[in-house]
């Protein structure tokens, strides 16, 4: 299964990944109009700073997902290929998934009273957050590909 991996030593905190995510999930598909959209959008990937280092928070698509187990409506599910996906139509906004996610990767879309998370932009060959990262701090691939990249760094 492919997912998004993060290389912290490459990240300079530019937040291009967040902007790419917002643009992709907006109705306008344009970053300038995204700010005016209602409900207010939240990026599914978030960059935070800890000391002198940046860290990206994104869904890890865990094989034994606490968010899936905690979801009382079945809005959080595993796809046939193993990714964790969120069905907003089933979501009742209890936010149990947010409380149990050990990575803090599920966002509160409070204006619509729903949870939101990375969907890996399945309609794209490479997720826009990965494609737009100027420092190549994000990798979209398998855990084996990630390990090879880290070993080569």
TrEMBL record:
InterPro entries for this protein: 4Fe4S_Fe-S-bd, 4Fe4S_Fe_S_CS, ET_IronSulfur_Cluster-Binding
Protein keywords: 4Fe-4S, Electron transport, Iron, Iron-sulfur, Metal-binding, Repeat, Transport
One MF annotation (Gene Ontology) recorded for this entry: 4 iron, 4 sulfur cluster binding
PROSITE patterns per the UniProt record, alphabetical: 4FE4S_FER_1, 4FE4S_FER_2
Keyword Electron transport: yes
Keyword Oxidoreductase tagged: no
Boundaries of every 4Fe-4S ferredoxin-type domain copy: 82-112
Organism whose genome encodes this protein: Desulfosporosinus orientis (strain ATCC 19365 / DSM 765 / NCIMB 8382 / VKM B-1628 / Singapore I)
Classification via Gene3D superfamilies: 3.30.70.20
Record protein name field: Fe-S-cluster-containing hydrogenase subunit
């Amino acid at each position: 299964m492919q997912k998004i991996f993060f290389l912290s030593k490459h990240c300079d905190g530019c937040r291009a990944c967040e902007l790419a995510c917002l643009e992709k999930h907006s109705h306008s598909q344009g970053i300038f109009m995204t700010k005016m959209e209602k409900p207010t959008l939240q990026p599914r990937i978030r960059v935070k700073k800890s000391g002198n280092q940046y860290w990206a928070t994104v869904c890890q698509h865990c094989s034994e997902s606490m968010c899936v187990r905690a979801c009382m409506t079945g809005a959080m599910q595993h796809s046939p290929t193993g990714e964790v996906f969120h069905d907003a139509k089933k979501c009742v906004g209890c936010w149990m998934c947010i409380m149990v996610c050990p990575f803090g990767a599920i966002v509160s879309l409070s204006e619509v009273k729903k949870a939101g998370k990375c969907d890996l932009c399945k309609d794209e060959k490479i997720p826009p957050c990965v494609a737009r990262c100027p420092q190549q701090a994000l990798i979209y691939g398998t855990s084996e590909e990630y390990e090879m990249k880290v070993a080569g760094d």
